[in-house]
Amino acid sequence: MGDYRSNLAMAEAYLARYRAGGVLNRIGGQDLPAASGDWFETIGPADLSPLARVAKSDARDVDAAAVAAKAAFPAWAALPGAERRRILHRIADAIEARAEEIAFLECLDTGQALRFMSKAALRGAENFRFFADKAPEARDGKAMYAPGQWNVTNRAPIGPVGVITPWNTPFMLATWKIAPALAAGCTVVHKPAEFSPITARLLVEIAESAGLPPGVLNLVNGLGEDAGRALTEHPAIKAIAFVGETRTGSRIMAQGAATLKRVHFELGGKNPVIVFADADLDRAADAAVFMIYSLNGERCTSSSRLLVEASVHDAVVAKVAERAARIPVGHPLDPATVIGPLIHPEHERKVLSYFEKARAEGATVAAGGEKLPGPGCYVRPTLFTGARNDMAIAQEEIFGPVLTAIPFATEDEAVAIANDVPYGLAAYLWTGSLDRALRVTERLEAGMTWVNSENLRHLPAPFGGVKNSGLGRDGGDWSFDFYMETRNVAFATVPHAIPKLEG
Ligand code: NAD
Q: What is the rounded distance in angstroms from the CA atom of residue 407 to the CA atom of residue 409?
């Protein structure tokens, strides 16, 4: 990692080929523009200048990709797991070898700070390694004995699948969904988000250069309502793994109904961090700050509601406000930057609208609450206090560096406030009492709860949300359950009496 100027020069060098040739689709191992010949432009969030033109695909391109994925499926599914493991490890090696290129392009495309994106590339490699090592056991099943009968299950890859990803940390999320699909023996059509499509292109190139056969991973760029929709409706695509907004998830469920798509949704969140007076308050404040302000707050598991026991509320809020005010906001390629620009002016307008709503509803701005001078979409890390849980800033996913603090008096009230939102992705609990931790975690409506910790991931553990935050689980063997069909074979072990129907 160099200084800002050398990083920017290097990032521009990596971007040059996309500026020249655009971001093409990759279908059956071939670079292709959209069948329509249309393009859309992306802009860099750091200064809103054009970055690249991107193939604007429609149902024809999706069909070509689905046909390629279907053609590649039998051979890929039949490959021994150990062979898929070897190829996926080679992809991980190639990701690591190009980690700088991935990180720099991700910064330019998403506005995320380099200090986080340099790790995102490595986490992408880790995702491939983790599922590579699981590939040989993907087909394993169970044996179940009954008197006179022996049941044996096995799993088979479901077929070609669609993966639809959002714009916030596109490379890492794409690998999280695609690596287990490939390890399971599925072939993939990937439709990345239109705001930040560049590193998805890099991923398919890296994968093929590492030995992934053509057609096993296909890339189709385009808008959600065109290319995305066509993918969810295509009869050859057996399942859709989707990460994005809750309302898009329900649209996809409706779109996929006619072809009975299996769906897996990782959706939005409004995650509480609950701090009791008996917690280590400095560590709790550090973790709350990290979980809402890292990745620009554009993070599904961000701790966007700070629920603090009344007796320590003012002290904790002061610690968070003081830390928030010191966070450097700047260009994503500057190694000193912690918060970069928001992804797009459209998203910035949404985030800024909550500053207005907060004031109108009577909340207090304890930190930030304003836009920084442009041209990029820079906003200050923001903390609202004096809020109630029925305010828009406490109920709705803002998806920016915006934290809403609410006091509570009792454990029951903490749980009630925490659960009183439509979402249920993650929760964070800070307490010095084991009994309380056991009681409260049992009652929280969240797919994942971290106790006395920020979001520290363990890849074998299940990842996913309840309520409006998602359907299904990723991680460990749960990923294989989604990408595979479980089948049962029952063997008679004794010549049992077969019912005779004749009179
Ligand atoms: P989005 O729902 O707008 O878009 C996500 C993807 O869906 C994009 O590729 C888009 O083109 C596509 N899409 C849009 N409409 C479609 C349609 N009708 N049919 C098929 N595809 C369609 O989400 P976003 O704004 O890109 O991402 C932010 C959201 O993602 C936030 O809500 C965030 O919480 C969520 N997210 C969740 C997780 C998680 O693991 N739970 C992780 C990251 C982000």
A: 7
